[in-house]
Amino acid sequence: MKTIRFKTTINCSNCLAKVTPALDKKEGIHSWNVDISNPDKILTVETEDLSAEDIIKTVKRTGFRAEEIA
Asked: Which residues pair with 46 in a beta bridge?
C-alpha cells in the first residue's frame, strides 16, 4: 500500500460533496481524506496500484485541481 498526497482546490464541505462520489467509486483507492483546514487542502490517498496521474484525472473530472506533493 502506498500513500500519495496532493495539494488541491477542494476547499469546503460542498466541494468535498462533489468529489466524494468519484473518489469513492474509483477502483483501486483503499481510502482517502481531504484536510480542508490545511491551507493547501491536502488530499491523501491510500492505494495499491493507482498512479498519481490516475487520481489527478479523477479529481479533475469533478472540476477541481490536484497536484502531487513530492
From this structure: 3, 31
